[in-house]
Each structure stands twice: as structure tokens, then as C-alpha cells.
Amino acid sequence: MAVGRWAAVTLDCANIAELVDFYRDVAGLDPVHVSEKGAFLANGDGVALAMQRVDDYRAPEWPSQVVPQQLHLDIAVDDLDRAEAELLRLGATKPAEQPDGAKWRVFLDPAGHPFCASVWD
């Protein structure tokens, strides 16, 4: 028997509003709660993402591990090229190092968190 149920993945960041806008547009998550200290976004199907403002936030450095990535998110897409263009338009950046650009691509959200856009078979 589980002690609880999955609630959300929480990302540290310096700018709450920037990540709320980014993940609302990237993953179709609706802001449920937003304050200057944190936010909670959900899609109604049990998928949720939270963020919390952290003083002196240091973005992960991918692929280097000087500041480890700690975790990354995967976004399922139908077309990598189309998804890449849209992600970049929304504020993501694309690191030069890409492990497998044919199946998945690594991007960084506006706070520097790595995430992958992947074609899932």
C-alpha cells in the first residue's frame, strides 16, 4: 500500500512567472496556484509541475556536471523539427551537444533545466 500519491515534480528557479508561461505553452499545463514564491500547474489528468523560487539559484550545466542537472523532463512530440522550432520560439535554448538528434533532442527551459523532446514509438 502506498503512503501517498504522486503530486508533482518541483523545479527550483529564480523567476516563477517565466517558467509558468513557458510550461503552460509547452505542455498545456494550467496555472492552479501562482505566487512570487512558487507555482503549481496541472492538466486535469493527474500531470502536475510545480516550481519554487530559490535565492541564489544556479542553473544546471548540461552536459557538464559542474552544477548537476538533478532531473530532467521528457515531452512527447510527434515531429521533432516542428517541436524544436516551437520550443525555441517559446524561450527554450538548444545546447550544442545532442546525444541522439534523430530520436530526441535536449533543450534548456528559461531557468536552465534540461528537458528532452522525444518521439515515442
Helices and strands, with pairings:
Layout: E1 9-13, H1 16-27, E2 30-34, E3 38-42, E4 48-53, E5 73-76, H2 80-90, E6 104-108, E7 114-118
Parallel strand pairs: 1-4, 5-7
Antiparallel strand pairs: 2-3, 3-4, 6-7
- What series of H and E elements makes up the topology? EHEEEEHEE
* Derived structural class: alpha/beta
The strand count comes to 7
The tally of helices reads 2
Write down the overall geometry: globular
Q: In order across it, which strands form the biggest sheet?
A: 1-4-3-2
Low confidence ranges = none
Q: Which range best describes the helical content: under 10%, 10-25%, 25-40%, 40-55%, 55-70% or over 70%?
A: 10-25%
Strand content: 25-35%
The N- to C-terminal Cα distance equals: 32 Å
Q: Taking Cα atoms only, what radius of gyration do you get, to the nearest Å?
A: 15 Å
Written account of the structure:
With 121 residues, this protein is of the alpha/beta class. The protein is built from two helices and seven strands. The strands form two sheets. A four-stranded mixed β-sheet has the order 1-4-3-2, with helices on one face. A three-stranded mixed β-sheet has the order 5-7-6, covered by helices on one side. A hairpin with a 3-residue loop joins strand 2 (30-34) and strand 3 (38-42). The relative contact order is 0.20.
